[in-house]
Amino acid sequence: MKRYHSPIFFVFIVSFLLLSCNDDSTKKDNDVLSTNQWIEANMRHWYYWYHQIPSSSKLNFSNNPEAFFETLLSPEDGKNTYHYSTINKKVGITTRKSNSEPVLGFEFQAYMFENSHIAINVLYVLPNSPADKKGIKRGQWIHRINNVLIQANDIKLLRSNQTLTLGLNDTWQNNTPLMNVNIAPEVIEDDPVFYSSVITGQDTGMRRVGYLVYNHFTSGPNGDDDLTYNNRLKSEFSKFKAAGVNEFILDLRYNGGGLVTCAQLLSQMLSPQASLGGVFCETHYNDKVNKNVLYNLQPNKENLDLTRLFVLTTNRTASASEAVINGLRPYYDVVLIGDRTEGKNVGSITLSDHKYEYELHPIVCKVFNSRRESNYENGFSPNWQAKGRQLLLESPVEFGDRTNDLFLNVALQMIRGEVTRTRSLSTDTLQIKSIYNSLLEHPNRGMRLGTIYMDTDL
């Protein structure tokens, strides 16, 4: 009897498994379809270039959501090799924190040289981070990851959760490590108020110069409603005011953006007192959303009543940083020193729904100043520019080094009246290219206008 019942039982088990697999597959397909329909509905409503989204009949709703999202984006969204609008999976309850995932604790820029040699420059190191504890310094060069010369695909390992061995040297020219460090990522805080000081004496022509390195526009470590970092910023400006600061150097070389309200706060402390109450910026949405939002320079007790501003820039200076430059220009002279900025004159929001595992960060508006100017999509050209990329490859020195930090030194010379407003500094040509801008790994940098949490689809 068993010989006859076993095949029937086996067929029943196989059939049950096949039905279960089919059910799982169908559920997965339905989840993808539902997610993509949610993405499309929101993009057709909020996206600044919604009119350029292909018709629904031309979209593939069976694509994975990341690929589907990309098919909706306009050629005007971003630059040649990347878009400003992004999508990402939620990480969990810590998603809204500014530093919810383990990191190594340093910002970097990777370069490929003419002999195809790749080296990674350490731009700055966060205090008390794994990198700081291992003795990694601003200006050092990483030549090896896990004891192997770096290839292009290896660079993103620095953004992973892996423990790594990094081979470092003090120069980009020598790929033999002077030190090897084993480093594991940790969850840390990334306070944007990175460095501040008051510079006085003969270097400034006896002026009292405030100097601030501000690395991103984030209000606090636990999301947009946390004002910890904003309060720290206000505290620093109270110190500047108490010290009688009458000139200011704002270092935005590595600031890729953040919350518009943080940019508003910074600007109203830097602006002339007579401008308070005026427009900082105005955001224009598409004709479906049909609104413009004004951000004014609010009166505040920390305002320095400056008559001009010096800003240090690089090609990583973007979005909310550029909004500060654009927003203050109508009120006084904003002098730029360094390199051309990114050219991001648009802003995004975060769209989230508890039913879906993705968050959307679409571009939803264009940013204007009080003169209705928004013509910096190609970046702001500096008044004093260092031409020749080799200058940018000299090992960066510690922040505040008024002698050896070229751009800070030039700003101080301008304050003393010893350097002309418009100048370019050239060096020997060096064939290199930037191959990885780590700021692009921060989809929430940019210029953000908050988060919209929805319980239902639009």
Topology:
Layout: H1 2-46, H2 65-70, E1 86-89, E2 106-113, E3 118-125, H3 130-133, E4 141-145, E5 148-149, E6 164-169, E7 179-183, E8 193-199, E9 209-214, H4 228-242, E10 247-251, E11 257-259, H5 260-270, E12 279-285, E13 292-296, E14 308-313, H6 320-328, E15 333-338, E16 346-353, E17 358-361, E18 363-368, E19 384-386, H7 390-393, H8 406-416, E20 423-425, E21 432-437, E22 446-454
Parallel strand pairs: 9-10, 10-14, 11-22, 14-15, 15-19, 16-22, 19-20
Antiparallel strand pairs: 1-17, 2-3, 2-21, 3-4, 4-5, 4-6, 6-7, 8-9, 12-13, 12-18, 16-17, 16-18
Helix pairs in contact: 4-5, 5-6
Polypeptide structure, described:
The chain is of the alpha/beta class and 458 residues long. The protein is 23% helix and 27% strand. The protein is built from 8 helices and 22 strands. The protein has helices at residues 2-46, 65-70, 130-133, 228-242, 260-270, 320-328, 390-393, 406-416; strands at residues 86-89, 106-113, 118-125, 141-145, 148-149, 164-169, 179-183, 193-199, 209-214, 247-251, 257-259, 279-285, 292-296, 308-313, 333-338, 346-353, 358-361, 363-368, 384-386, 423-425, 432-437, 446-454. Strands 1, 11, 12, 13, 16, 17, 18 and 22 form an 8-stranded mixed sheet that branches. Helix 4 (228-242) packs parallel to helix 5 (260-270) and helix 5 packs parallel to helix 6 (320-328). The protein is globular and about 75 Å long.
